[in-house]
UniProtKB/TrEMBL annotation:
Cleavable signal peptide: none
CDD domains in UniProt: FHA
All copies of domain FHA, residue ranges: 19-68
Transmembrane segments: none
Organism domain of life: Bacteria
Matching Pfam families: FHA (PF00498)
InterPro entries in UniProt: Cell_Proc_Reg/RNA_Proc (IPR050923), FHA_dom (IPR000253), SMAD_FHA_dom_sf (IPR008984)
Organism expressing this protein natively: Corallococcus coralloides (strain ATCC 25202 / DSM 2259 / NBRC 100086 / M2) (Myxococcus coralloides)
Protein name: FHA domain containing protein
């Protein structure tokens, strides 16, 4: 993801699709220095590269010693430096890769950044909502049984708190994720102890096997895998679907805990860099049904 380094103090800033630099407290990169204008400059992802723009600042924005004209845009490459003011504040574009989706809490300024193509809100410990792209790059919000499309800069309410989401363009997602594995390329091996108290999950990727850190939510994964394997005789599109209420009874849990476990399983797969990690647990819209979103899976006894 895009990363900006402030040269004087070593601060690093994760870049959203558009990033405002200036002295005003509302700027994404807040610089409380008299040499910097309220809204001094901006960095914007242009689909294939980052662009730096001067916003009519009093002391100017400088790249390689040249002052940009007001409103002028220039391409900024990885490792390239720029100054806000001729002898002012220096920055370096440390990472010129495309931006990741992120969300900003309006009250506190807290920023959450997507892992791979999955953004979980409000945090990893108590996940309530998942944001992820569908085919074609259109982002969706999944909150319990609700699923709806999201636009860049849209606001999301969770427990009375307001978040603003910053979503990359569809073209950005293609560039960022072209080399990332998909669930169709991944194979799962799930071991379950005889007393059903312990689960081990091995994920086979291109570079080899990765063991997931143990989590209680992995028993959900094992249960969904068993349901899908039991229906291998059906068409792939019909395998493994289970009503939420039935699944809750099988897991001896409730709907809220089930939703949290779904978020946590997706988060673990997202951390592996799998681009469609949210699909590891699929929901069938309008039915209340879920299933394991992978067909290449094995369940065995430890």
């Amino acid at each position: 993801m895009g990363l900006l380094l402030q040269l004087e103090d070593g601060r690093r800033f994760t870049l959203g699709t558009r990033c405002l630099l200036g002295r005003h407290p509302a700027c994404d990169v807040h610089i409380p220095d008299g040499r910097v204008s309220g809204e001094h400059a901006s960095l914007h992802w242009a689909g294939a590269h980052w662009e730096l723009r001067d916003l009519g600042s009093r002391n100017g924005t400088f790249v390689e010693g040249r002052r940009l004209a007001s409103g002028e845009r220039v391409e900024l490459g990885q490792g390239q430096d720029f100054l806000l003011g001729k002898s002012g504040i220096g920055f370096r574009l440390l990472d010129a890769s495309p931006p990741a989706a992120r969300a900003r809490h309006l009250a506190t300024g807290q920023v959450r950044v997507a892992t791979g193509a999955l953004l979980v809100l409000p945090d990893d410990d108590e996940p309530q909502a998942s944001l992820f792209p569908l085919d074609g790059g259109q982002w969706v919000l999944e909150l319990g049984e609700e699923r709806r499309r999201l636009k860049d800069q849209e606001r999301v309410w969770l427990d009375g708190s307001e978040w603003v989401v910053e979503l990359p363009l569809a073209a950005t997602e293609t560039l960022e994720e072209a080399d990332a594995p998909t669930l169709a390329e991944v194979r799962l091996r799930i071991g379950v102890s005889r007393d059903e108290e312990h689960v081990e999950v091995a994920v086979h990727l291109r570079e080899g096997e990765r063991m997931l850190p143990p989590r209680s939510s992995q028993y959900l994964l094992a249960t969904l895998a068993r349901l899908r394997l039991a229906e291998r005789a059906l068409a792939p599109s019909e395998q493994g679907w289970v009503d939420r209420e039935r699944l809750c009874r099988m897991l001896a849990t409730d709907t809220n805990k089930l939703n949290v476990d779904i978020h946590r399983v997706r988060k673990q797969f997202g951390a592996l860099g799998i681009q469609d990690a949210a699909g590891v647990v699929e929901r069938r819209p309008g039915t209340g049904q879920v299933r394991l979103g992978m067909s290449s899976v094995e369940v065995f006894t430890l």
